[in-house]
Amino acid sequence: MEEKEKPQMFMRLSGPRTAISQGDVEVFSEFEEGGEMWTGAGGRERRIHVTFDNAYSAPPAVFVSPSLMDMHNEGAYRAELVAEDITCAGFDVVFRTWSDSRVARVRAAWMAMGEMAYEDDWNID
Questions:
Q1: Which of 100, 116, 117, 121 is buried deepest, with most CB atoms within 10 A?
Q2: Which Gene3D superfamilies does the annotation name (predicted)?
Q3: Cα separations in angstroms, 65 against 11, 24, 27
Q4: Domain that holds residue 60
Q5: Beta pairing partners, 48
């Protein structure tokens, strides 16, 4: 079963410059292929880039949370899910695990909130 990125939601708040974007992405799925996240040990990382449908005028605040974590039940659940390399145009969702944790797949829900360009802004270069 191939999962695709769900469409982003974009909303401008009552202030014309403040906006919220949100989405949900599959970070990885390695159970069926027997990938390193599922079979490996030690430190492991997966990174996926998210591009905003509408660019912000400054890097927004970005929040990520797991929307799916499929982990083996015989080991400890060791996981870190963070947003890194945040720019006006997008960011990276990063999942890390370590030691003997076995992870089959991870999806991440995300939300970005920040300032957008406004039609009445002056562009003085």
A1: 116
A2: 2.60.40.2080
A3: 20, 9, 12
A4: 9-115
A5: 93
